[in-house]
UniProtKB/TrEMBL annotation:
<dbReference type="InterPro" id="IPR037171">
    <property type="entry name" value="NagB/RpiA_transferase-like"/>
</dbReference>
<dbReference type="InterPro" id="IPR004165">
    <property type="entry name" value="CoA_trans_fam_I"/>
</dbReference>
<dbReference type="InterPro" id="IPR012792">
    <property type="entry name" value="3-oxoacid_CoA-transf_A"/>
</dbReference>
<dbReference type="Pfam" id="PF01144">
    <property type="entry name" value="CoA_trans"/>
</dbReference>
<keyword id="KW-0808">Transferase</keyword>
<protein>
    <submittedName>
        <fullName>3-oxoacid CoA-transferase subunit A</fullName>
        <ecNumber>2.8.3.5</ecNumber>
    </submittedName>
</protein>
<dbReference type="GO" id="GO:0008260">
    <property type="term" value="F:succinyl-CoA:3-oxo-acid CoA-transferase activity"/>
</dbReference>
Amino acid sequence: MSGKIFPTPAAALEGLLFDGMTIMSGGFGLSGNPESLIPQIRASGVRDLTVISNNAGADGFGLWMLLESRQIRKMISSYVGENKLFEQQYLSGELELELTPQGTLAERIRAGGAGIPAFYTKTGVGTVVAEGKATEFFEGEEYVRETWLRADVAIIKAWRADPAGNLMFNKTARNFNPNMATAGRVTVVEVEEIVPEGTFDPDCIHTPGIFVDRIVLSTINEKRIEKLTTRPKEITQ
């Protein structure tokens, strides 16, 4: 068995968690959430976390669990409007928030993985997003400087992995997960399936194994639907 494969989510996180650390958590809404690893972080009791994630889960699920247990001190996020607990903690002053435009958040994470400390973007110029940040003009247009994001640990969810840690993601679960896999000092991946070495066509690998440190089979694969919209079936004559 590969040295990257761990028997349980708790074992995959062993020795990595500490108070005050920064964690990147993959997912967009409830798609691609590391469903099995988040409960283990809660069970560890680690506190004062800075969490980088597009959003903070939904009622009773995902990162909501760490908000409910008051383990998160700061969120660096893009979309927070659907999480009422997030809203309450932020408005009450319990939770610090660094709100980042979604494309900028993705690029800051990608930059962290690529070793690029800063870059310039037009997004946010002239708004509160640019407050306190350097700006420069390029070809007559103003741009705001954004800095990279990196983490002590990145927790992500993939569809399949081989023993070397090469990953494939399933459809929209690909969202922030591949970029986050490159930007963690240690990257822990929960997967739905571990396949034998040599299974993947190299052209079909979404994240190379060099970015993956630990792999564990998911114990939770609920894949909840955050908002279900239906309509009556159309009947044709």
